[in-house]
Amino acid sequence: MATALVHYTAAAVSDRGRKRPSNEDAFGLSVERGVYLVCDGMGGAAAGEVASSMAVEEMFRLLANRVEDVPLRQAAEEAVCAANEAIFSRSQRNRKFFGMGTTAVGLLTEERYVLVFNIGDSRCYRLRNGRLVQITEDHSYVDEQVRLGQMTREQALHSNFRSVITRALGTQSQVTPDFFELKAELGDLFLLCSDGLTREVSDSEIAALLGIDLPIEELCASLVSAAKKAGGNDNITCILVRAGV
User: Fold this and answer.
1) Whose CB has fewer CB within 10 Å in the chain, the N or C terminal residue?
2) Could you give the C-alpha distances from 104 to 26, 60, 177, in angstroms and in order?
């Protein structure tokens, strides 16, 4: 029996939220090239916006134009390395940008093969048959404490250290992303998002919203709307990628 080909559709929404004066998130997507990226910048003044924009621009350029015979993971590693070097170098040259950095989460597709990578606390989820699973693990102080058994999930939600990121793109001369290799099934729905969503909307609420039978453009908008209604304390960016026939 022949295996059905997978065709992807995608949508994205990025919003400043209710409290921040600007949007330090950035994203890029290309269904044709199978590249989807979300970055959440950090740093004083406009440095966060600079870092996230540089990361998306550099990674997207390299990944969207990658040589076909180069393995996807190798291409991703090279793109992350190049983006990190570009941001770190600029922060060293210009004191205004010193210490700037950004989270990054990416999803790359080649037919059914899906490669996810992340740095920081921007996340990737997969909804399959109504069940939402977080693919990535946050590189944050509280999540690492939870994984070590030093803090409960409930304590982490209310910790004063929730904002402490332990790994970011551009803050050091080298950085190592986590990689996750998956096989897409028809009907899978992938979500890439910044923490402006996940700090305001619980996983169960995200699953319920994504379970509604709506076009993915409207699903994206509903996630952002829910985060804003819950407080909208940070910038909110979501990309949805659906595997279909």
Assistant:
1) N
2) 10, 12, 9
Q: What is the pLDDT of residues 96-140, one digit of tens each?
A: 898 899 999 999 999 999 999 999 999 999 999 999 999 999 998
pLDDT at 1: 41
Report the chain's terminal Cα–Cα distance, integer Å: 16
Give the bridge partners for 134, in sequence order.
125
pTM equals 0.94
Rounded Cα–Cα distance for residues 151 and 169 (Å): 26
Q: Which domains does the chain possess?
A: 7-244 (3.60.40.10)
* Count helices and strands in the chain by DSSP H and E runs: 7, 11
Task: Please state the separation of Cα 167 from the chain's center in Å.
Answer: 14
